[in-house]
Design brief:
alpha+beta, Rossmann fold, OB fold (Dihydrolipoamide Acetyltransferase, E2P), six-stranded mixed beta sheet, 10 helices, 19 strands, globular
Amino acid sequence: MANVTLRNVRKTYQGGFEAIKGVNVDVADGQFCVLVGPSGCGKSTLLRMVAGLETVTGGEIDIGGRVVNQIEPADRDIAMVFQNYALYPHMSVYNNMAYGLRNRGMAEAEVKTRVDEAARVLELGAMLERKPRQLSGGQRQRVAMGRAIVRQPKVFLFDEPLSNLDAKLRIAMRVEIRKLQRRLKTTSIYVTHDQLEAMTLADILVVMNGGQVEQVGNPLAIYEKPATTFVASFIGAPPMNLMSIGSDEIKSQLGGSATDAGILGIRPEDFVITDQTPAGGVALPLTVEAIERVGAETFIYGSRAQDAQRIAANPGELPPGEVIVRVPGTEAPAIGAKIRVAAVRTKLHLFSGDGRTRIEA
C-alpha cells in the first residue's frame, strides 16, 4: 500500500490546450479518493496520468514516496479497472484473472492461490470456467476487479467502472466496491461523473471543474460547506437553489451579513412551508409549478414571483427563476397554489457575486 501525492500537476496538449491546470491532491495510505466532475473537467486525464498512460507536462506524481513521472505504467505498481471491463473474450474467467500474473513469470501454484482467493472474495468461484459472454454485466465487472486484485498492487485506479451497468446493479456494485476496498485497505482513486456515487464511496472527495480542483475534503463537509457555487450546485440532488441577492427583499431579510455577498444558496431540504419568517433567516413567496412524488419525499418546483419594475431597477438581480423545495412524505400543495417557504439562518449559504468565494453567514 502507499500514499499518492500530486504536486502542481499539469497537462498541456499540442496546440496549447491546458487540460489539467496545476492540481494538488494528497491521498493517504489506504484512503478511497474519488475524482468527480462533469464531462470534460479533466478527471479521467488526471487518472491516466497517475497510471502512466498520459505524460505529465509539469509537476510531480508521487506514489509511495517515489516520483513516477518517468516510470513506465507496468513499473508503477498500480492496477486499473476500466469502464469497458477490457476482458479477453476467448479466455475463461480464471485465465482472464491469471493472464497478467503469468506474463510476469509467476509460478503457477502462486497464480492459482491468488486467483482462487480473489474468486472467493468476489464470489466468482462457480464461474471460473465460464467465458465473458456467459456472464452478466455485474459479473464481468467483478472479473475485471478480480484481475486487478490478484496483482496485489499499491494503488487501485478505477475509471468510471459502473457506467455501463443499469441503475439497480450500479447501486449493488457500488456497495461491493466499498466493502472490498475496506477489506483490502488498498489506496484507491476512483473517477466518476455521478455525484451520488462519489458521496457514498469517498473518504476524500476531489471536485473538479475545467481542469482545476474546486474543493477537496470529506464528502459531508463539502456538502455542508461548499466553497463555490459550482460545488454547491454539483454536489447534491436536487441541486442547491442559487439566487441573486441583489437589492430585493432577500437582502433586507439578511441584513448586514449579506453586504459582501452576491449569491444566496439554500438546499431544497432546508426549506419549510410556513407563513412565518424566521429571525435572521429568509422567506420567499412561490407559485407551485410542478410536483414530483418519489416515495418517502416530494419535490416541489416553484417560481419566484418578482416584480418587473423592481427587476428593471436592479439589473444585477436574476430574472424570475425556479426554486426546488424537498418535503417529507407525499403531501404537497396543488399546482398553481401560492405558498411561502422559509429557511433559518444556519441553513443559508452566501457566496461572492462571481461564485468563487464562500462567505460565512
